[in-house]
Design brief:
By secondary structure, this protein is α/β, with parallel strands linked by helices. It contains 10 helices and 8 strands. It has an 8-stranded mixed sheet, sandwiched between helices. The longest helix has 21 residues. The mean pLDDT is 94.
């Protein structure tokens, strides 16, 4: 059994996938397998993947979205942990070695999360360094609610058995399916955040799902609904921790929507979040957001 199964979902990204795979094959830690799930690509992806032969385990499905593709990878994984990588992102050579060190030094936690560096051109990652190794350990993911680091849900390794137990990713085509998974893993024992070194190059471009305003809006509504229906673990005793992370994300998305002229969606999320903010109020946001929306609406268009 390999330590890691690297699961890469892809859809029509042949031009970027080769570079992503090269970053995986450059890993200094070789105790891993590589799984690529082709989510119904219609470009040159199948031909590209055929060139790798047995180096890559390839699975294909009709186009169903990233969540479904990742779940297929989870079902087929042979590793003790699944490390997820999107098909447009890059790993520095030490990513899996850093994850292994986190596992060894912190009692083999359920979840390891790395730190990301955004880029548009791969050359922007040339100054990354492999050390020093610095990590923070928590009893579980929810216990990190008050930590101030940026949560990069696309840069994680998760114990395979835990992923299968909680049901993997949502099949919904939303941009928050990874955070939904983190909340459902919230009380699984052991969470480690690797502060140093950077373990992911996160590519920013026009096609990134994180820039899809509608999916971001729908994803945040989905997270609120999940919490409202009691579908996240921890019960009342851990509600404050869940809300701290959930509402931080909601506030970010409402500002993001407003900056892109989506006032109606921003106000809908604001209103949907009020019942949760009553339990964990952030008065600067609660009192300041409506006037900011009004100011934006009165600003003359260019």
């Amino acid at each position: 059994m390999p330590l890691f199964s690297v699961v890469i979902p892809t859809y029509n990204r042949a031009s970027l996938l080769e570079e992503t795979l090269a970053s995986v094959f450059a890993q200094t830690l070789t105790d891993h397998e590589v799984i690529v799930v082709d989510d119904g690509s219609t470009d040159g992806t199948p031909a590209l993947l055929a060139r790798y032969g047995e180096r890559v385990r390839v699975f294909r499905q009709d186009n169903a979205g990233q969540g479904v593709a990742r779940n297929l990878g989870i079902r087929e994984a042979r590793g003790e942990y699944v490390a997820f990588l999107d098909s447009d992102d890059l790993w520095p050579p030490w990513t899996l070695a850093a994850f292994q060190q986190a596992l060894q030094e912190h009692g083999r936690p359920t979840l390891v999360m790395g730190r990301a560096r955004s880029f548009q051109s791969p050359g922007e990652l040339s100054d990354l360094e492999s050390g020093p190794f610095v990590a923070r350990s928590f009893a579980d993911y929810l216990a990190s609610a008050d930590a101030t680091f940026i949560r990069t849900a696309c840069a994680v390794a998760v114990r395979t058995e835990a992923l299968r137990r909680v049901g993997g990713f949502s099949a919904k085509r939303i941009s928050s399916e990874d955070y939904d998974l983190l909340y459902r893993l919230g009380v699984e024992p052991g969470f480690v955040y690797v502060e140093s070194p950077v373990t992911l190059g996160y590519r920013q471009h026009a096609e990134s799902s994180s820039r899809d305003l509608d999916r971001g809006y729908e994803g945040t509504l989905f997270l609120l609904s999940q919490e409202g229906h009691g579908r996240y673990p921890g019960g009342a005793a851990r509600r404050r921790e869940r809300l701290a992370m959930l509402l931080f994300g909601l506030r970010h998305v409402t500002h993001w929507l407003l900056e892109h002229g989506r006032r109606r969606q921003a106000l809908t999320l604001y209103a949907r979040g009020l019942r949760f903010h009553r339990a964990l109020p952030r008065w600067r946001y609660l009192l300041g957001f409506p006037p900011w929306v009004l100011a934006k609406s009165l600003r003359p268009r260019r």
